[in-house]
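Morning!

As promised:
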Amino acid sequence: MKAAIAFVLLLASPAAANPADVIGLGARAIAMGGAQVASVEDSTAGYYNPARLASFDEIHIDVGYQMSVPRVGANGETFAVDRAEGVAAGIAVPGTLLGKRLAIGASLYIPDQQVTRTRTLPAERPRFLAFDNRPQRLLLTAAAAFELAKGLQVGAGVAYMASTNGTVELQGLVGFPNTADSDLDLAIDVDVKTIRYPHAGIAWQATPRLLLGASYRGGFRLVIDQTVKVRGDLGTPETTVVEDGRLDLRSVSQDLFQPMQLTVGGAYKVTPCLLVALDLVYQRWSVYDNPTARIDVELDVKQFNDLVMIPPARIFEPPKLRDIVVPRAGVEWQGAPGPRRWIARGGYVFERAVAPEQKGESNFIDNHKHTLAAGGGIELAGIGDVIQKPVSLDAFVSFTYLQPRDHHKLSPVDPVGDYTAKGHAFAAGLMSRWRF
Amino acid sequence: MRFALLLLLPACGLGWIGTEDDRTAGLPTAGAGPYKRLEPDDLTPASEPRFLNDTRADVEDPSMLAGGAGLRVWFTRRTDEPVVSEIHYLEAPSAHQLPSVGPMAVLDATETWEEGVVSSPSVTRNPAGGLVMFYEGGVATPSIGRAVSADGVSWTKDGDPLLVGATSPSAVFVNGETWLFVTRPNEIGIWRAVDAGSGFDFDPAPAILPRAGETEAFDQLSVFDPFALAVPSLQPGVTRIHLWFAGTTEDPPATAIGYAATFDGLDWQRFGGLKPMLGADAAGPTVILEASGGLMLFEGAAAGGTRATLDAAEL
C-alpha cells in the first residue's frame, strides 16, 4: 500500500492544484489582491498572518472552492499547463489564557485531483516558473496566536509538505539478447515524508483606524531522490554472459520550491465602510536551484565494461533568479450593518519577473505579472434560529496578465531559439464564512 | 453561461477544460532536430513515411514551402532511359495525404547552358514578390540558374546562369543580399556565394566541411545537399540561418542529415555533436518550421529498390 501511494505521487500525470502563494487563499483575500497581512479577518489568517487569529471573538469556519486557469505560451503556441482547482478551508478557535486572548487555527488547501504533483523536466525544456509546477501542491498550515498586550498580537505556526524518496530494486536474470528471458524480482521502498517550514506574524492596532502587520514565511525546497538498482546475471536461462552485473541509477532533483517571504503591511479604515490595505512582500528567489535532475549512473558488466561509455553527469548553470518585492493593494467596501450586508472588494498585484532573460540553454520563463481582482459578498446576520452569528458568502474573480517578454538566444544552434513568452491566468472562486 | 460552466463543472469533479497528456505540446523550438520519420498510419491515405514514390523515375532534391493546399513541393524527377531530368511540382494537404495538385512538370531544360538537364530546385519567396527558384543545370559545367513565378507553376527563366561551377543550390535572402549555399565540382564542402547586387562571389572558404578527423561523425567523409532557411531573430537586424545538409561516412557507408546554424554566415556552429538530425539513408532535406515543430521532406529509397523517393519526418 505504501508503494502504491508513492507511485501515485511519483507519476507525472495531469493534476490540478493551487497553493495560496500563487493566487491566494480564500475569496476575500484574493479579491483584495492578497493584501492581508493586516486586514485578514477570517480563518485564512493561519496562512496570511497567524497573529491575527488572536483578534477573533468567535470561532471561524470557512469553506470554499477556487480555481485558476492559466493560458501561457510562446511564439503564438500555448503550453500544456494544468489548471489548478481545489477546496480551500480553514478554522480559527479563539479563547483566553491568564486573561489574555489566544487562538489556534488551521488553513488547508486540497487539490481536487491529486494531493500533490511533482515533475522533473529536461534541462532545456521551456517552463513557466509561476505556473508549471509551483501551483501543484497541498497546503496545510497550523498556527497559534497570543495577545501580548491590548491591540498587539503575535502568532506562529508550521506548514506541511510531502516529500518523496524511494528505491526500486530489481534482482534476477536480465535477458540478453532476448529481453523476454528476463526474470526479475521487484522490490520497491518509497517513503513519503513530511517537510515543514515555519511561519510567524505580528499585528498591532496602531490607532482605532490603522492596523499594522508583518509576517514571515519560511522557504522550502522539495528534493526528489529516486534510485533504481538492478542486480543479477545477464544472458539466457541456459547461458550466463555476465555474472553478478550491476546497474545503479540515482536521480536527485529539486522539484518544488517556495521562496522565503517577509511581508509588511497595513490596513486603514478610511470610513467605517471603507477599508484600504497595502502589503509589501519580499520574496527570496535568489536561492532557487536549477531543478533539472542530477542523474548518476553506475554500470558494472564485468568483462564488457570497456565497451560501455557512460557520459559524465551534466553540470547545469544556476538559474540566477532575483529577489523581488511584490506590492499588493486591496480595498473593501462594506454596506451598513443590518440583516443583510453587501460587500464589494478590489485588488491589484504587481510581480516582477524573477528570472532573467533566458539567453542560454535553460528556459525558466517568467514575466512581469499584473493581477486585477474583484469580488463581492453578502453577510447575513444569521440564519433563522439555527445560526445566530453572521454568515458570509464571498466570491472573487481575478485576471493575471503576463507582460510579453522576448528571450534572445546567444547561440545560433540553440534548440529552442528566440521566443516571446506571454499569457494570462483567470481565477475564480467562492467561500462561505461561518462564525459560532 | 460559459462562465457559469467554468465555475460549476470543476466543482462537480468534471474537467471542462481539458488537460493535455503530451507535455511537449506547444513548446517553442528552433527546429534543428532531431527529426523522426513519420510513423505508418492506417487511417491516412499516405504510406508514411513515404510522401512520394514514382516507380518509373527517381524523385529527389525536394524544396518545400507552406501554402496552397498545405504543402507546396518542387522536386527533381529523373529517368535514365530516356535520360530526362525535369523539375516537377505538387501540392498536398499534409505529409499524411496524397497530392491534391500534381505532380506535374513545371520546368524543363530549354537553355543551351543547361545541356538538357535541370534539377535541384530551391524555391523561396521573392522579396520582390512572387516566388523565385534557383536550380542546377548543365552536365559538363554545372551551373546555377534562376527563374521567377507568380504561381509556382509557370516559371520565367533568366537567360544565363547566375553562378558557374556549382551544384545543389539553396537560397536565402538576408539583409538585402542573396546567399546561395551550394556544392562545387572538385571542391570539398558546402560553400556560400553572396550576391550583394553585383553578382555572386564565393566565400574564400567553405561554410561546412566534412569532419575527417572525427571517426564517429556522421559527416566524416563528405557533406552535400544543403538546405538553408533564414529566420529573423527577435533582435532587430539579426537573422538566424539554419542549414540542414547531408553527410556520409565511409565505414560503414551511410548517409544522414545534419544541422548547423549561424548568425552572420561565417561563424557556423553544429548541433548534436557528432550525431545527425535524421539518420539512416537520408539526404536532400527541405524543412518547414512551425512555432512548436518542423516537417522535413528528404530523399529516401524505395524498399527493395534503388529508386529515390521523397519521405517525411517531423520534429
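Chain A touches chain B through 38 residues (CB under 8 Å).

Hope this helps with the figure draft.
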